[in-house]
Amino acid sequence: MRPLLFSSMPASLAGGLIVLEEHMYKTLTGLVLLLASAVMIMQRGRAVDRVGEIPLRESVSIGAVLGLVSGLTGVGGGVFLAPTLIALNWASPRQTVALSPPFILANSTVGFVGALFTGQFPSPDLALYAIFTLAGAVAGAVIGLKWLSQTAIRFILAAVLLVAGIQLVRA
């Protein structure tokens, strides 16, 4: 997983340095979320417990793409990482829940720095958003790891991605 993370961080910084027009930003982010949802839905029938080998070259390349998209959209990358790990059988849904937080934190931080360099400033409510995001992430990880099946995690993730993607594309 380290090559995936380490290749995503510089790409996330580069994405954060690119300023998109609002309509382009919402459309791009919405389409990427819809694509991630479609991948999750199409993977429905595959064995969720079978986890394959993670090839170095592919993990570095995919990490860079995920980082760039993360930086461009201002999303930490977990919504892109989770479907990718599951679709490629690099991690089970349960493992993905555990692996995503460090990836999200690293890419969010680096992408945020890139956005600051371009003169984009966060909402005045950033501290409040950060507190609720952290609380939600901890609660989601605990619930997902302790009480939800692999299928339930996959279904919930696909539904959240689908709803968010539709809302952004329609905005």
Explain how this protein is built.
By secondary structure, the chain is mainly alpha-helical. The chain has 7 helices and no strands. α2 (22-42) packs parallel to α4 (78-87) and α4 (78-87) packs antiparallel against α5. The termini are far apart. The mean pLDDT is 84.
The topology string of helices and strands comes to: HHHHHHH
Which oligomerization state do the chains in this entry correspond to?
single chain
Tell me, what's the shape? globular
Query: Care to count the β-strands?
Result: 0
Distance between the termini: 35 Å
Helix content: over 70%
Poorly predicted sequence stretches spanning 5 or more consecutive residues = none
Query: Structural class, judged by helices and strands?
Result: mainly alpha
Total number of helices: 7
Radius of gyration: 16 Å
Strand content: under 5%
The main sheet comes to:
none
Calculate the mean pLDDT score and round it: 84
Summarize the structure.
The protein is mostly helical.
